[in-house]
Write a structure and sequence with these properties.
The chain has 525 residues and is an alpha/beta fold. Helices cover 34% and strands 23% of the residues. The protein has 3 domains: 95 residues, Udp-n-acetylmuramoylalanyl-d-glutamate--2,6- Diaminopimelate Ligase, Chain: A, domain 1 (3-Layer(aba) Sandwich), CATH 3.40.1390.10; 240 residues, 3-Layer(aba) Sandwich (UDP-N-acetylmuramoyl-L-alanine:D-glutamate ligase); 177 residues, Mur ligase, C-terminal domain (Protein-Tyrosine Phosphatase, Chain A, Alpha-Beta Complex). The chain is built from 17 helices and 26 strands.
């Protein structure tokens, strides 16, 4: 229970109706359905629903005060205290942080933003913190977890009240370092207001979420907002996009230039495969993992990791930069990378059940659902194998349609066999989504062939459509030839498929493992 006046200490406001003196608050919420006696209700004008329309409902349920963004009629005067602020979405995070006694101040806070690599970076940092003797709390796409506690992730970055409650739990249970994925949606919606970070990491930027942001400049600007939440002496870590072949876009370089205009150079660490304060040399890439020497401002170390590919090396270097920013030794960072295993659904190698690996075909599951991510993964696998490259993928419904033909073109350019299938079509017609992807394949004249003949052939290239994701995975693994590499892309760690009929259980990794078991059984027979 908190004094309302204390919650408003750092907020500019004016009141109507009942005065705030003596009002005690037992909960803070922006969801009128959660209002009980003693609740402070914050009305927020959202993208699809305006919370101001539910103030009457909150008052009827017994809230002790409401925060509004615009003036309301005097009909609530005498019943409840009305607090008017300039922007209620900005205030919610501050109120939640105050209600839970600013739990983030009791821990080291690391925020990660970028299109790809956020989840991989959280897992690597989790291992690094443990290797250094700390206790980690993770907030991200796969789940929220600390110690033995694990919650399903409802958002990559939770809503403000849920976020502050979770941080309070973590602090009370001895967490020393919180590693958070911070999405562009969360930054635009001010979900992390009330937090300040010790370290912020930018992984990369490529096309995604343009259905929400509209264009890449707005998307970039949202990501850049994370660095306004740094403490005065907080460190910014930026992964540069130039790689071994100096490819990729230059968003990291742009961010680095702009940060240097606003922050002390000593508070910024740049990372890159061949450039940056943290960089690599003497590289070794294989399907079994990645190795190189890492050069850092505090000393060099030998990196050896199970993670595959150049794009994962960028993730490892970015995490190295975070480790340096946190004061961890190069030796500790090296030890943690050697201990970190596969990341769920991030270019994760799938093997049959039991101890006997299947040697004749390699199967990977990856979360890649953007053009850049798909290109990175396919390029990595193309460069590390001599057999055919088979990709099974689709695109999600009710999301940016413009990326669909781009992904089709990338798949046709880099893979030998492309099996288009359903991802999470949501409310859209799955066939229409597949047609959108096909446009990219048509653009490069990638031929459509019947999948049975494609997979039997040694040299024939082409694509086919198998709308059932289960069937597409089965066909790719069952009919693949010895030496082939199969990539199942788009859903990664997810354990569901969303269609117009709702959500049903589906796990790419489980599906792949079952088909590998069948292949192993058939070969033994």
């Amino acid at each position: 229970m908190k004094e309302l006046a204390n919650l408003l200490n750092n907020i500019e406001y004016r009141t109507f109706g009942n005065q705030i003196e003596g009002i005690k608050v037992t909960a803070v919420t922006a969801d009128s359905r959660m209002v009980r006696g003693g609740t402070l209700f914050v009305a927020i004008a959202g993208l699809t629903v305006d919370g101001h329309e539910f103030v009457q409902d909150a008052v009827d349920k017994g809230c002790v005060a409401v925060v509004v963004q615009r003036g309301l009629s005097c009909s609530f005067a005498g019943r409840v205290c009305v607090i008017e602020v300039a922007d209620s979405s900005l205030i919610l995070g501050e109120l939640a942080a105050a209600f839970y006694d600013y739990p983030a101040r009791r821990m080291q806070m690391i925020g990660i933003t970028g299109t790809n690599g956020k989840t991989t970076s959280t897992y690597l940092l989790e291992t690094l913190v443990k290797t250094a003797g700390g206790e980690s709390g993770i907030i991200g796409t796969v789940n929220y977890r600390y110690g033995e506690v694990e919650y399903e992730a409802t958002h990559t970055t939770p809503e403000p009240v849920a976020l502050q409650k979770l941080l309070h739990e973590m602090a009370d249970h001895g967490v020393t370092h919180v590693v958070m994925e911070v999405s562009s949606h969360a930054l635009k919606q001010k979900r992390i207001n009330g937090l300040l970070f010790d370290v912020a990491l930018f992984t990369n930027l490529s096309r995604d979420h343009l259905d929400f942001h509209g264009n890449m400049i707005d998307y970039y600007s949202a990501k850049k907002e994370l660095f306004t939440y740094l403490k005065d002496k907080g460190r910014a870590v930026v992964v540069l996009s130039g790689g071994v072949e100096e490819g990729g876009s230059a968003w990291g370089e742009k961010l680095l230039r702009e940060l240097r205009e606003d922050r002390n150079e000593k508070l910024i660490i740049s990372c890159g495969i061949k450039n940056g304060q943290v960089h690599g040399r003497n590289f070794h890439f294989s399907l079994a993992g990645t190795g190189c020497e890492v050069v850092t401002p505090t000393g060099n170390f030998q990196l050896q990791s199970e993670l595959v590919g150049e794009f994962n090396l960028r993730n490892l270097l970015g995490v190295s930069g975070v480790g340096i920013a946190l004061g961890f030794s190069p030796k500790t960072i090296a030890q943690s990378f050697s201990r970190a295993g596969a990341i769920p659904g991030r270019l994760e190698r799938i093997q049959p059940s039991g101890s006997l690996p299947l040697q004749d075909i390699a199967v990977f599951v990856d979360y890649a659902h953007t053009p850049d991510a798909l290109e990175n993964v396919l390029t990595t696998l193309r460069n590390l194998q001599s057999g055919r490259l088979i990709v099974v993928f689709g695109c999600g419904g009710d999301r940016d349609r413009g990326k669909r033909p781009e992904m089709g073109e990338i798949a046709g350019r880099l893979a030998d066999v492309v099996l288009l299938t359903s991802d999470n079509p949501r409310s859209e017609d799955p066939d229409k989504i597949l047609t959108d992807i096909e446009e990219g394949l048509w653009k490069i004249s990638f031929p459509k062939r019947e999948h049975a003949s494609l997979l039997r052939s040694k040299k024939e290239r082409g694509y086919d459509i198998i709308a059932s994701r289960h069937e597409a995975i089965m066909v790719a693994i069952r009919d693949g030839r010895a030496g082939d590499v199969v990539l199942i892309s788009g859903k990664g760690h997810e354990q569901y498929q969303i269609t117009s009929a709702g959500r049903t259980y589906f796990d790419d990794r489980q599906q792949a493992r079952e088909q590998l078991n069948n292949r192993l059984f058939d070969s033994a027979a």
